[in-house]
Amino acid sequence: MNFEIQWRGVAATAAVGLSLVACGDPLKDGQLLEEVRPLGVRFELENGLSTPAPGESAEVVLLFAGPTGPVDLRLALEICQAEETARGTPICIGTPWVAQKIDVVGSEGRASFSVPEHIEPGSRIGIRAVGCETGEPELTSDPLDWNCGGQGEPIEVGFDGVVRSGSFENQNPRLVQSRLFVADAEITFEDVGVRPTCEEGVLEVEAGKKLEFQLRLDPGAREELSDDAGEILQISHFSTAGLLERQFSIVDGSEDLVVDFTWKAPKESGAVKQYAVVRDGRGGVAWLSYSLCVQ
Amino acid sequence: MRTLRRNATTTFLISLAWSTWTEVVQGQTAERGQEADEQPKAEDASAAPASASGPPPGFLDDEEELEFEAVAEVEAPPREPTKRVMEQEQLTRIPGTRGDALRAIEVMPGVARTQFAANDGPPLLRGGSSWESLVLLDGAPVPLIYHFGGLTSFFNSQLLESVEMTPGNYSSRYGRAAGGVVEARVRDPKSDGFHAMLELSAIDSFAIVEGPITKKTSVALAARRSNIDFFFKNFVPDDAYQVMAAPIYWDYQGIVTHRFNERHKLRTLVYGSQDSLELYYGDSAQEDPALQGSIDARLGFHRLQLELDSQLSDKVTQQLMISGGPALGDQQIGQLRQKMRFWDVIARAQWGIFLSDAVRLDTGMDLVMFAGKGEYTGPAPAQGEGNPEFGALAGERYLTIEETGLVPTRPGAFLEASLRPVASLLLVPGVRADYVLDGDDWTVDPRFAARWDATRSTTFKGGVGLYSQPPEYYEIMDDLGNPDAKPFRTLQTSFGVEQKITDAIKVDVEGFYKRWYDRLVDTEGGAPPRFENDGRGRAYGLETLIEIRPSAKSQAFLAYTLSRSERQDRDDPWRLFDYDQTHILSLTGNYDLGKGWIVGARFRYVSGNPTTAIEKAVYDASTDTYFPVAGEVNGSRLPAFHQLDVRVEKRFDIGPVGLTTYLEVMNVYNAKNREGRSYSFDYSESQGVTGMPIFPNLGIRGEL
Fold it and tell me: Is A246 in Cβ contact with B617 (below 8 Å)?
């Protein structure tokens, strides 16, 4: 009998470290927005919760961005009760509650839905979406067949939420009082739909220079789960140019809500937009964005 | 002419009645480490009570007068169609294995290639998965076979007498494995005086001391520790790797053999092993937020094993074995956590009953269980094979199992007859019954094997039987698996011929066909109940072994396997097995140049493993990773693998001290063998990943 359950990650990482050697040029970097990509999805309820109850209405918000920041897309979307699968894209049980096409304008797309009364609390909510810069998006049961009507590459998205129950409810991370510092300067956050510029008020940075950032998250970004620990936050960093130190930062449940990271400005001058998407690991998601001017 | 020493012990004579006479060598006993009056292991197929009064009637007639003093060395006659036996001196000199006995069986046919340092489980035999093979140490299954990644096996090869590999159609004496059996046999400590051995190499170092402590008792003690962490920390620049693994392992062995008298021998083994893995992340893993922060793994166990071999009467032998001890398994990666603390117990009792010169019965029972507690936070376990790229660990939904008591208990019993209606024909029908207490399942497996010595140099052999394997404990746990999952089984058949060309050259050709029923496979997406007995499989092939042994220290093997192994999951189309390797060719040789020089080489050519193309990827907005969407599972194949390993060894004798230095170079011509693909975060770009580059290992060993 084997007494350990194999984790591919451990074996694979050990193998990488010990013996396997990747060959060829480096693969593209996840923090750099080289093409239009989804960055996050969240449920929004009036009370800040991310967990709608049976019979309750909510909005689903999808965030996209590209090499120049905000983007416009056409999106096909399904919202449904999803099977309790362990991995992979959500698999709908029965007919989706919502199946519609929407427009993403200035990076965010929104759709309203209601959780049917008969859905059991604690059930999984699945989101399946495909976006197209050109062409008309089309969803099918098999993700291999999602398409843009033959025009352009489809941008496919899956997301899981949970129907609120007596034992589980969750807030989206609150980021209103978050602050971002570069050296002695503070950067002002802006709406994700704002195009980056080098207008007055945008911090100017020297081309090619490596800068140290400190993101101080709102104390409400993290819910307490016990007396001595809160949610573990995952912060995803994205930039339209330059090189961020890493794509992911993790703030443990007992750590200060502070994230330090570096960014090396590109050698070319121009406006740069960056995003920080915060996930609480329990379905709660929120995001910030800001601009920098490289001179 | 047969020359036998009548007073040596008639054990050998009885053995001859059951075996193919292979060799009579005068004066070689000491060199091979077997004393002339030492009874063979009762577990050997033909072993008979040492006090038996003589050869079976009719086997040696009166004309064969036994009047010379000599020593007989007899191969244990297998009761399986094929059992490949490699002795310690051969095992530790196979190039490319670092002298590791269990790694050495990879030069045999029927064993699939696994990439260096990436398989820490049992070998893959005859188109089967690693977990379908049973690895035993003197009859006891072992909790861990190799130190991390499969660098070195947990038991010092210098303390092994032999390793026996049965790729399929194994005896009813063992069970709970749908594939084959590898059994490592521990040798007795030397009793002719005190000996010591110290070996230093780049990868690990060990020491052994052994000798007699009374006239009837001898002891061996050994310990080993890895050196890799030392080299990593002191000689590899911090920024040399994004991810750096520094495995630390150690193991120890103690053997005490006590002979009460000619009829009873007690052997006590104490052994243990611990592996610690530290992963240093300079930054986060770019593609997987779950692989962030410190990553620790610690696996270890300690075992006490008692073995009592007895002759209860002239016609009955008995072997009792009990093995047990604590084990631990901790793994942590960020939020993922796995912790196990338990004791395992393996017990075995078997009796050999010699009813007549033509009928022998073997019967017995065994028990495998462990009792302890475990807790788990991580992804739902998935079927271990046939899963293409899953994507990031972060993209999986985690399960949490609070501390839970576990007592998986699996008793079994067997009955096997060895029938010789005529001296040249051996028929071995058997049956084995196993019970899975934690799953409340019975299995009954009938098996049959036959060997026919058509001439003194030609033997035909064959076998057919059922082989059941229970689910792993977690596969039938609530939440993690399916409590209703049943054991799966294979039907194994084989037929072959062994031909002795000369005393030094043997050829063995065997075909096999294997069918899997009720394999445990994932449900779609891993949804509860996560596993179902809804898989099938088939494998067939031809194995060829040409063995050349011109002298004790010179040997050559040509092993070639032609095979195909396929699986069907649910109602999906049939696909290739993950390690389906059409051609497996291994050429291995050692040559004794004299004056202490021994040179060796191993060349391997193996078809590339099947691989699955990633068609596209879907963004997982819950974790900011991508789900890969696979195309046809194992629909294409990696390029073929080829590698040459060499070993040069020189022994100096300085008074009572023997000093051996060796240089082993793996992948001498630095072949860039493709072992897989590495993907960008969104799977839109990929590049090949190559296996181990040229890898030298220098060592020195001193023996007293």
Answer: no
